[in-house]
Amino acid sequence: MVPFVGFEETDSKIPKSDQALEKALNDCIKRKRIQNYSKEDAKTFLAKAHYHLQTAESFESDSFLDWAVIAYYSGMYMAAKAFTSHFLGTAAKDHGCTIALMLKILHGEKFAKKLGSARKKFEQEIELLGKVRQYRNSALYTVTEVKENDIRKIAKNAFEFVEEIDKLLRW
Description:
- The structure is a single chain.
- This protein is mainly α and about 170 residues long.
- Helix content is about 75%, strand content about 5%.
- It contains seven helices and four strands; from the N terminus they run βαβααβαααβα.
- It has helices at about 20-30, 40-60, 65-90, 95-105, 110-115, 120-140, 150-170, and strands at about 1-5, 35, 90, 145.
- The strands form two sheets. The chain has a two-stranded parallel ribbon with strand order 1-4. The protein has a two-stranded antiparallel sheet with strand order 2-3.
- The radius of gyration is 16 Å and the shape is globular.
- About 35% of the residues are buried.
- The model has no long low-confidence stretch (mean pLDDT about 90).
């Protein structure tokens, strides 16, 4: 196996400007990638996020590191869907659209006021989701080797991400 770019060097590929975000959201709407969900659905998505994290730990302990990356990312993705369901009443069928919806919430006036000084940290969390997504894509779709030090970083970040979303849903 050929090692790929390490986790730290992975580009998140998330929209970086308001114009890019607007374009991404319009594309999601045009492709009908956004569906309505409720706050109750958000709880179900969050439960599934925790399940994926447990599954990832199992894969990791059995040295199935590529599958661990995939499951850690899946936990983060389900938490992201819980977040958008809770705060917008919608979630996306598409990973990029989910990230765009999260950024929409973050840039919204109401949520920005609630977050206050924690806004920058949450922006970093969304950037992290994008990075793990790209790393997961490499683990899933290419013939590469997952680095052990990267899996430890991803695991730590995945648990922190889901925990942070869990806290935000209690507002």
